From TrEMBL, chain A:
<feature type="domain" description="Electron transfer flavoprotein alpha/beta-subunit N-terminal">
    <location>
        <begin position="24"/>
        <end position="216"/>
    </location>
</feature>
<dbReference type="GO" id="GO:0009055">
    <property type="term" value="F:electron transfer activity"/>
</dbReference>
<dbReference type="InterPro" id="IPR012255">
    <property type="entry name" value="ETF_b"/>
</dbReference>
<protein>
    <recommendedName>
        <fullName>Electron transfer flavoprotein subunit beta</fullName>
    </recommendedName>
</protein>
<keyword id="KW-0813">Transport</keyword>
<dbReference type="GO" id="GO:0009063">
    <property type="term" value="P:amino acid catabolic process"/>
</dbReference>
<dbReference type="InterPro" id="IPR014730">
    <property type="entry name" value="ETF_a/b_N"/>
</dbReference>
<dbReference type="GO" id="GO:0005759">
    <property type="term" value="C:mitochondrial matrix"/>
</dbReference>
<comment type="subunit">
    <text>Heterodimer composed of ETFA and ETFB. Identified in a complex that contains ETFA, ETFB and ETFRF1. Interacts with ACADM.</text>
</comment>
UniProtKB/TrEMBL annotation, chain B:
<dbReference type="GO" id="GO:0005759">
    <property type="term" value="C:mitochondrial matrix"/>
</dbReference>
<dbReference type="GO" id="GO:0032259">
    <property type="term" value="P:methylation"/>
</dbReference>
<dbReference type="InterPro" id="IPR050078">
    <property type="entry name" value="Ribosomal_L11_MeTrfase_PrmA"/>
</dbReference>
<keyword id="KW-0808">Transferase</keyword>
<dbReference type="Pfam" id="PF06325">
    <property type="entry name" value="PrmA"/>
</dbReference>
<dbReference type="GO" id="GO:0016279">
    <property type="term" value="F:protein-lysine N-methyltransferase activity"/>
</dbReference>
<protein>
    <recommendedName>
        <fullName>Electron transfer flavoprotein beta subunit lysine methyltransferase</fullName>
    </recommendedName>
</protein>
<dbReference type="InterPro" id="IPR029063">
    <property type="entry name" value="SAM-dependent_MTases_sf"/>
</dbReference>
<comment type="similarity">
    <text>Belongs to the methyltransferase superfamily. ETFBKMT family.</text>
</comment>
Length: 301, 204
């Protein structure tokens, strides 16, 4: 059965003002609103669309972290993913969890699940690393289509239109492959209440990294985390530099594994967009009016 | 004290609009009966299109929810239809839906029949019942026994849920019909585009 694995990361919500801990060891996460990394939402959306086009049969959403990441998986299930896998990582292991460890986990799961494609966000808005997709592809020895703004499966290949500096590059790669989602790939749908309710019973399997034969040892030491420098008044506002830098983890992005990344387009997420971008999914959003069951009754009975 | 069924019925009737449009305000936990599931929709359509499968038959709709498939069986001329759902509110919803379809209320039962001694059903209908692993497992073996002891015909409606697609029962299923889901149903069931009616044939 053709299956797509999608990685979903739980991050501090993009609208939250990030605060650095007084001891500069990291950022404050306690009591802070979290949601799915927006690029992961785009990845889930693309996978669900492939399923709706009947190109693939099953979408499996994976997240690594403590119990709370199950909420993120539930959101993916409410967006149309079929089942979830919660890779249990907590405490010190979670603090040290970086792209290399996540890539090893994803690579192991991709093999175990016999995935045809792994779709990930191009980067997470918390650490801005932009490494997981590339490293996952390297570890699997699969082709990769990074920064995708268009994905089309054609038989045993996939055509990926990539956002590169100053233009678009169209490539055709063999399946299985790793694809990472850029901002313009699609606009994710809302997890509406009827879908949230229907997602409640979808299965979330729990696995431990050790069950997958993955060693979580990290070789990166975070020396210090600082607030970004205050912006100077009267800047030209070209929109090239990140307006609100969430890049709080200096020293964390010294790739500690194979990194064959494409060009990094910084700060895309913060750039003013032509259209309002995907909004965070929230289970407490007021539900849009749903079509009434009685209408369906009339048509069917 | 449990709330009486008449009270629940009155509540549903009076708050119909709000119940249907604001699921966040539902005062019931897991009101599966408030949803007409895509698996049940296909199964119901199949029964209405092929009334012969139910005509003069003794029919069990297991996990009947809103009661649509049971009602379709009755409309198709079944001799007897039992709407079985462990949620007592589902029985009330089925009664209201019988009224809407100008039918006498169908007999209903809230007892869990899975695992019990198989009765002589001619036809068992299962709309969207393969949504949980444990439930799928117990249904698999119990339905097998129903077929073995009474030659019951077992029809399953399912929109391609992972719990069915990856279950060992899957290779014993014969497709009878497939329906494309209308846009409104897709909107409420992201990722699903069609729903299939299967016949369970353990001999396969
Ligand atoms: C997904 S709903 C399907 C409802 C309906 N058949 C339809 O397709 O619209 C599943 C229903 O099965 C019921 N159910 C769960 N376990 C059951 C059991 N052991 N026996 C009878 N009904 C059960 C639930 O209460 C719920 O109403």
């Amino acid at each position: 059965m053709a299956r797509v694995l999608v990685g979903v990361k739980r991050v501090i919500d993009y609208a939250v003002k990030i605060r650095v801990k007084p001891d500069h060891s990291g950022v404050v996460t306690d009591g802070v609103k979290h949601s799915m990394n927006p690029f992961c939402e785009i990845a889930v959306e693309e996978a669900v669309r492939l399923k709706e086009k009947k190109v693939i049969k099953e979408v499996v959403a994976v997240s690594c972290g403590p119990q709370q990441v199950q909420e993120t998986i539930r959101t993916a299930l409410a967006m149309g993913a079929d089942r979830g896998i919660h890779v249990e990582v907590s405490g010190k292991d979670y603090e040290a969890l970086g792209p290399l460890q996540v890539s090893k986990i994803l690579a192991a799961l991709a093999k175990k699940e016999e995935a045809k494609m792994v779709i990930l966000g191009k980067q997470a808005i918390d650490d801005d690393c932009n490494q997981t997709g590339q490293m996952t592809a390297a570890l699997l020895d699969w082709p990769q289509g990074t920064f995708a703004s268009e994905v089309a499966v054609e038989g045993d290949t996939v055509k990926v239109v990539r956002e590169i500096d100053g233009g678009l590059e169209t490539i055709k790669i063999n399946l299985p492959a790793v694809v990472t989602a850029d901002l313009r790939l699609n606009t994710p749908r809302y997890a509406t209440l009827p879908n949230i309710m229907k997602a409640k019973k979808k299965k979330i399997a729990k696995v431990k990294p050790a069950d997958l034969g993955v060693d979580l040892t990290s070789r990166v030491e975070v020396l210090r985390v600082d607030e970004p420098p205050q912006r100077q008044a009267g800047g030209s506002g070209t929109g090239v530099e990140s307006e609100e830098c969430t890049d709080t983890q200096e020293g964390l992005c010294l790739g500690d594994g194979p990194n064959q990344g494409g060009p990094v387009s910084h700060g895309d997420w913060d750039k003013p967009e032509p259209e309002p971008g995907p909004e965070p999914l929230c289970v407490c959003d007021p539900a849009p009016p749903v079509s009434t069951e009685s209408e369906q009754w009339d048509t069917v009975l | 004290m449990p709330i009486s069924k008449t009270k629940i019925g009155r509540f549903i009737r009076q708050n119909q609009r709000r119940l249907l449009t604001r699921p966040d305000l539902w005062p019931f936990t897991d009101p599966y009966w408030a949803i007409y599931w895509p698996g049940g929709q296909a199964l119901t359509r199949y029964v209405l299109n092929n009334p012969g499968v139910a005509r003069n038959k003794k029919v069990l709709d297991l996990g009947s929810g809103c009661g649509a498939s049971a009602i379709a069986a009755k409309i198709s001329g079944a001799a007897y239809v039992l709407a079985n759902d462990i949620d007592p509110v589902a029985a009330v919803a089925t009664k209201l839906n019988c009224e809407l379809n100008n039918l006498e209320p169908l007999p209903s039962l809230t007892e869990d029949l899975i695992g019990s001694k198989p009765e002589g059903w001619d036809l068992i209908l299962l709309g969207d019942m393969f949504y949980e692993e444990a439930l799928a497992d117990s249904l698999h073996s119990w339905l097998g026994r129903c077929i073995q002891t009474h030659g019951t015909r077992v029809l399953i409606g399912d929109p391609g849920r992972a719990q069915l697609e990856s279950h060992s029962i899957r290779i014993q299923l014969c497709p009878l019909a497939q329906y494309e889901l209308p846009e409104a149903v897709r909107e409420e069931n992201y990722g699903l585009t069609s729903s299939t009616v299967w016949r369970y044939r353990p001999e396969l």
